[in-house]
Amino acid sequence: MTRGQWGCAVAPVAGLATGVLGAVLLAAAWRACDVGVNGAANGLALIFYGALLAIMAAVWWGVFIGYVGRWNLAAALLGGTAGAAVMVWIFVALLQVPNGYRC
Question: Which pTM value belongs to this model?
């Protein structure tokens, strides 16, 4: 397997991991601030937001590892991790409390 093909193997796994991490962190923030009726009421929104984040992260990982990984695999992994962390941070910061900061 060439380094360029690693993007196709790593991107779905890393994207899914990023989406799950973002959904878990968002669920914890919502639970701490009493957003929604209960955990089950927020489940559909968390699945939707987590899937959206997973798709964006999978594209990011695929392009970054597939392109940058051809020359330097360590830099590609570091850049992919940094980009995924920024995505999760923005994701949780924007969606943490839908009606404003009250907690």
Answer: 0.83
